[in-house]
Design brief:
Mean pLDDT: 78
Distance between the termini: 60 Å
Strand order of the largest sheet: 1-4
Length: 223
């Protein structure tokens, strides 16, 4: 396309737009606004965002709060304990027999004596050790882990809000399309209906069923 041809097309487009009556263009905008107002009873995008964040427990992560908790954890001592049992047995087995000689040189022997000593001792030993690493009050290696976790949570949070936003307005777009434009066939009408239901189910999955509950509550209030 040459520059002259392009200029002619632009001029014709400008003339056509200028030729359209202002009332017709205002009526089109009014129709869209009127159709959109039919869904004022439905949850807003902001409420849907908050419901999704609550359901998936994806609140805004606080880096300073997590770091402060990691440092204060150094005030808690590391405890090491030991318990030992000691059983000691001393067993003595003694035999005693006296042999004596009398004046005549005869030997006399008394009865043998048998002594058995069983000395049993049991002891229980306890050991407890406390240690503190106060250097972590200034810096703890966990801070690097916390920073990575915070960045990952922010990314997941943004991805979640993006998914909710895209699904929410895709559903609204199909609702307005279905209201303002008559379907050409029953198949198209069915396809529109199923698409809206699929997007509603997607919002339910992101909010734990909250979205449909709000729609049901709104319908109940209307009755």
């Amino acid at each position: 396309m040459t520059r002259q041809t392009f200029a002619i097309v632009v001029s014709l487009t400008t003339l056509i737009v200028a030729w359209i009556p202002q009332t017709a263009r205002a009526l089109t905008g009014a129709q869209i606004e009127e159709a959109a107002s039919a869904f004022d009873h439905e949850p807003t995008i902001a409420d849907t965002h908050q419901a999704a964040l609550r359901y998936l427990e994806m609140g805004a992560p606080d880096l300073d709060h997590w770091t402060r908790r990691a440092r204060l954890a150094a005030l808690l001592p590391q405890v090491q304990g030991q318990v030992a049992w000691l059983d000691q047995h001393d067993l003595q087995n003694r035999f005693r027999e006296n042999i004596e000689a009398d004046e005549n040189g005869d030997y006399q022997r008394d009865y043998a004596q048998h002594y058995l000593y069983d000395d049993t001792r049991s002891r229980t030993l306890y050991s407890l050790r406390l240690s503190l690493d106060l250097s972590q009050l200034v810096y703890t290696p966990q801070e690097m882990v916390i920073q990575r976790e915070v960045r990952a949570r922010w990314k997941h949070r943004d991805d979640l809000l993006k998914a909710v936003t895209e699904t929410y307005f895709a559903r609204r777009r199909h609702q307005l399309y279905d209201m303002l434009l008559v379907p050409d066939s029953e198949e198209e009408a069915l396809a529109r209906h199923l698409e809206i239901q699929a997007l509603s189910a997607r919002l339910d999955a992101l909010t734990g069923g909250w979205f449909s509950e709000q729609l049901q509550n709104a319908k109940g209030g209307e009755r």
